[in-house]
Amino acid sequence: MKYLLADHAAALIDRIIMDQIPAGSRVLDLGCGDGRLLCRLRDEMGASIQGVERDPKAVIAAISKGVPVIQADLDQGLDEIPDHAFDYAVLSQTLQQVIQPENVVNEMLRAAQRAIVVVPNFGHWRIRLQILVNGRVPITSELPYDWYNTPNLHFLTMIDFRALTERLQLRIVRELPIVSGVAKAGLKLANLRAESALFVLERMTNEVIPITIPEPQKPATEIESDSAV
User: Fold this and answer.
1) How far is CA 208 from the centre of its chain?
2) Which Pfam families does this entry report, sorted A to Z (predicted)?
């Protein structure tokens, strides 16, 4: 399970992630794909690595590179990973594709001391402009899907992600807006200008904040029809 990015763009994001991880760290990559990032962490930084991936073909590709991989669905939890077994858990361009993002982030910080999360920023000005001008779900280099075949289940902005960390009582150790594959620390109007963003997270306390899933609302007996806008 991995967000679709061109190889060059993915390599730039990988480099930004690697810059947050000290050499020799224990790293868990969730939604590791073919193991590209983990290979670099192992070969260039001497990291101890472990991947988790749902797609069978990607699992085989990662194993062929010597990457240890657990085939699992992130939404089913990480029961095979002991508490605090890793220094860093990485989730790159995948959070918006899982059913319960809160649970996945909680699991990351159960399995590791720190979490590195990279998310696409749906608040970027180009996305806003396309919606305003065309009145349709936008297609951009960062959002390269038609609405009916996108793997994305959730559409979040940088502001939305910060709100999630507050809800889960997490500390943002570092926030890096990303523009054209370059990390821009301290970028002004980041929620408008950044195409994606990297967050390094840790817990404020050892207590995991429980997630309450709201009950679905009962359908209304009468539905008023609105004209298209």
Assistant:
1) 19
2) MetW
